[in-house]
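Hi R.,

Here's the chain you asked about this morning:
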Amino acid sequence: MSDVLCAIESEDWTAFAKLVHPYVSWTEDGHTTRGRTRVMAMLAGRAHTSGSHTAPPAREYEMRDGQVYQWTA
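And here is the predicted structure, written out as tokens:
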């Protein structure tokens, strides 16, 4: 899953989109965001407000069709 984290840190949303399923369920601190474009917007927005380009590593994840379908941090 380091590829996903690297894409987030470098703000490479094209690479991120290839790694993450369109219907991804992304959960951090009990809050779930669904859908690849919403997840990208959430992560990009966080970078602009906090200056941080990182996301917590997954405690659990599920793959579907070779892409991350569920991410729980």
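One quick note: The mean pLDDT is 92.

Cheers,
M.
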